Amino acid sequence: MAMNVKGYAALAVKEPLVPHSFVRRDPREDDVVIDILFSGVCHSDIHNAFNDWGGATYPMVPGHEIIGRVAYVGKSVSKFSVGDRVGVGCMVDSCQHCSACEQGLEQYCEEGSTLTYNDIDRHDGLPTYGGYSDRIVVTEKFVVKVPETMDLRGAAPLLCAGITTWSPLRHWKVGEGSKVAVVGLGGLGHMAIKLAKALGAEVTLFTRSPGKEADARRLGVGHVVLSTDDAQMKAAANQFDLIIDTVPYVHDLNPYIPTLALSGTLVLVGYLGSLDPFLNSTPLILGRKSVAGSVIGGIAETQEMMDFCGKHGITADVEVINIQEINTAWKRMLKSDVKYRFVIDIASLK
Ligand code: NAP
Ligand code: ZN
């Protein structure tokens, strides 16, 4: 029952996405076949299609914030039934036996997790294709349940923007009374604010965009610091237990380190690559401060985050688009002009 699937793909680097038909594998015994309803648009989709990180292969069907309904389950599937509302994020498989996988941290799989797109399936050696399409086939181990009453459009971004900010909030034990700052108010940034606030933290936003202040306050931010204003940066000294930096491109981290409290951590989730300018170690050493990194989150942790969001009524603020508008949406995202996540209504593919 190999399936013909419709989607949108990049056929070459920096080329606009175009309609693209392709074939998904026959479902294996542990597979769930999902009719995709909504697919979130992450800045990583742009980085991948533009080959910012190297290793791009084409045709590339992006999309790793997938919400849909189960259409078929393989013989050994036990967690899901036809009709269930489900989500798939950035990974669709991992080795399942290394020390990271054994801890439920499949995103750090020592053999490399299998990414939802722009990767190779570890069993049949075929390319993986993402959520800008109408169907996907995924082992049940990498599928999560969507809470009963959750709005499905606003749920899609939880699968990447949500878990990527949830995981560091949990790892660094953010809770009642913690002081958290978020750098950049985009898809990840707005989820970091909502989740940190719901965990009981006092939240500050660092932004380059003065126009985002009112929205930031509506999302739960107590203080807004314009990162381009030296005086405001200096006034924010010695405050934060955790800073989550979501900026997608290289930028100077040095001005943020003095804003960390004693033993505080700045965790990078946005930019991948060498720092420029260099990081000065002196304020790190003199304040026992850390600069760290973090990638998405494990599957159990993703389910935990979905359930937390269900309980606290949290979803993303989304602009729903038709898939024909995807190239315009990417251009707007590159200008930081999105409030605060584009989500593709996959019905528009039909
Ligand atoms: P986004 O919606 O485009 O938001 C990024 C925000 O960063 C912008 O809204 C802007 O906020 C700020 N910004 C943009 N360009 C900047 C620049 N040159 N200098 C300073 N600030 C800038 O992107 P996103 O989808 O949230 O993704 C953010 C980054 O996280 C991307 O690089 C993405 O690939 C990465 N990511 C990582 C993981 C992971 O697992 N680690 C997962 C998903 C995504 P202001 O206007 O407020 O300044
Ligand atoms: Zn993403």
UniProtKB/TrEMBL annotation:
Keyword Transcription regulation tagged: no
Keyword terms, alphabetized: Metal-binding, Oxidoreductase, Zinc
Protein name: Hydroxyacid dehydrogenase
Domain Enoyl reductase (ER): 7-344
InterPro entries: ADH-like_C (IPR013149), ADH-like_N (IPR013154), ADH_Zn_CS (IPR002328), CAD-like (IPR047109), D-isomer_DH_CS1 (IPR029752), ER (IPR020843), GroES-like_sf (IPR011032), NAD(P)-bd_dom_sf (IPR036291)
Source organism, top-level taxon: Bacteria
Acetylation in keyword set: no
Top-level taxonomy: Bacteria, Pseudomonadati, Pseudomonadota, Gammaproteobacteria, Enterobacterales
Cofactor: Zn(2+)
Molecular functions (GO terms): alcohol dehydrogenase (NADP+) activity; zinc ion binding
UniProt xrefs under Gene3D superfamilies: Medium-chain alcohol dehydrogenases, catalytic domain (3.90.180.10), NAD(P)-binding Rossmann-like Domain (3.40.50.720)
PANTHER family: ALDEHYDE REDUCTASE (PTHR42683)
Entry's family note: Belongs to the zinc-containing alcohol dehydrogenase family.
Pfam family of the protein (one): ADH_N
